[in-house]
Design a protein that fits this description.
globular, disordered N terminus, alpha+beta, 3 helices
Length: 175
């Protein structure tokens, strides 16, 4: 899955998966939990993903901390074997990102850039996905910094405790 256009098309599938998997009622497709990360599986089409929500969120506008309403804030690593997707890093900030903006991802000092479309962000290539996953397996936290369409700067900090076990379980379940 190397092209940005293909990734955008995949956003619709992720939107559906996220909206059904993370609704307010308990999900029936959660198959594992490893500290701060969970594993979910869908049967048709076969999809497996690891996901976490942030441990800390800071929203600022003009350098001042502000209260804002955001939807679900989630960091995924997604597998969909029928579409050739393996280890796709995906982030949703719970709001539409500023048009043409990028999301900065910092994993223990290693910097990565995610490209945005609506409420979703991804690395540019599957090679970038692999580099990010490697850094996340070695790291203790991932900080994602972005800008909303309304100009709010957001900084979401995710724990990586349980990340490796969850990603490996997700991969195994989707072989």
């Amino acid at each position: 899955m190397n092209s940005w256009i293909t990734r955008i098309g995949f956003a619709a599938a992720l939107t559906f998966a996220a909206s059904t998997a993370f609704a307010q009622t308990p999900s029936t497709n959660r198959v594992g939990a490893n500290t701060d990360w969970s594993v979910f599986v869908e049967a048709s089409p076969k999809e497996c993903w690891s996901v976490s929500s942030p441990k800390e969120t800071v929203n600022t506008r003009g350098g001042r901390v502000v209260a804002v309403r955001r939807g679900d804030i989630l960091l995924f690593v997604f597998n969909r074997p029928d579409s050739g997707v393996s280890g796709q890093v995906t982030f949703t900030g719970g709001y539409p990102f500023a048009s043409g903006s990028t999301v900065n991802m910092n994993v223990n000092g290693a910097e990565f850039e995610l490209f945005t479309d609506g409420e979703w962000a991804w690395p540019a290539t599957s090679a970038d996905d692999a580099k990010i996953i490697t850094a996340m397996k070695r790291g203790s936290s991932a900080v994602l910094t972005a800008r909303s369409g309304r100009g709010t700067e957001t900084k979401d900090t995710f724990s990586l405790l349980g990340f490796t076990a969850s990603v490996e379980e997700s991969e195994k379940r989707c072989q």
